[in-house]
Amino acid sequence: MDSNLFLEALIRGDRREANRVVDRILDRGDGLETLYMHVVQPAMSEVGRLWQENELTVAEEHLATAITQAAMGRAFERVYRWHDSRTPSLVAACVDDERHQMGLRMLCDLLEIDGWDTVYLGASVPIESLVSMVEKRKPDALALSATIAPHLPRLRAAIEAVRAAHVDEQPLIIAGGRAVAGDYALAERLGADLTAKTAAEAVDVLRVRVPRRER
């Protein structure tokens, strides 16, 4: 399986082989969603499990993550096509102290392919900076991520701060990451409008909930 070959390359720290696996997948016509959901995500989940069980060191886990991020960047550049009119828009950020950002990166890449204008802020974004960006960019949607339960209070605080931001229209807020991951009741308690288990599911939900319009 492609995911196993990709995983083996990550465990060996073999950047070239990881890129070859990705290139073979794209060369046969599979899209970015297939690559992300069926190869990258399961491979990185296994990397995380191996790290938790002390079968990989911190350095090896960091190397696997860096190789994966670089491979994702190469894959995105291969398949991306510019859209003259880009709508709707989304800002994506990990809450303060949250450093697991790959799911948000997948979401932004998939939305860009779908014609969205995305702003990817990455890991550990302070609340004040997040609110400032929302007020400046006035996005149609905001994606926030938290991986572990201790970060949920920060997620709630971020959502509350965005709700109090000085914008004409509030963005639709979708909460993701393993700490939320499709738990709609929890997402509602945190103040979010939506949640999704995967980046692909988030794309499907956002397509329905956020209308396309000229900006």
Structure description:
There is one protein chain. The chain is of the alpha/beta class. It has 2 domains: 78 residues, Orthogonal Bundle (Methyltransferase, Methionine Synthase (B12-binding Domains), Chain A, domain 1), CATH 1.10.1240.10; 121 residues, 3-Layer(aba) Sandwich (Rossmann fold), CATH 3.40.50.280. Helix content is 56%, strand content 10%. The protein has 9 helices and 5 strands; from the N terminus they run ααααβαβαβαβαβα. A 5-stranded parallel sheet has the order 2-1-3-4-5, sandwiched between helices. The chain is globular and about 50 Å long. The relative contact order is 0.12.
List keywords for this structure.
single chain, 215 residues, alpha/beta, Methyltransferase, Methionine Synthase (B12-binding Domains), Chain A, domain 1, Rossmann fold, 2 domains, 5-stranded parallel sheet
Describe the structure concisely:
The protein has 215 residues and is of the alpha/beta class. The protein has helices at 2-12, 15-27, 32-52, 58-79, 102-113, 127-137, 152-163, 184-190, 199-209; strands spanning 89-94, 117-120, 141-145, 172-176, 194-195.
Indicate the proportion of strand residues.
Answer: 5-15%
Secondary-structure element pattern, one letter each: HHHHEHEHEHEHEH
* Chain-averaged pLDDT: 92
For the termini, the CA-CA separation is 43 Å
Tell me about the biggest sheet?
Answer: 5 strands, parallel
Low-confidence stretches: none
Number of helical segments? 9
Rg, nearest Å: 17 Å
Which structural class best describes the helix and strand composition?
alpha/beta
User: Which CATH class of the largest domain is shown?
Assistant: Alpha Beta
Number of domains: 2
**Spatial order of the strands forming the largest sheet:** 2-1-3-4-5
- CATH third-tier fold name of the largest domain: Rossmann fold
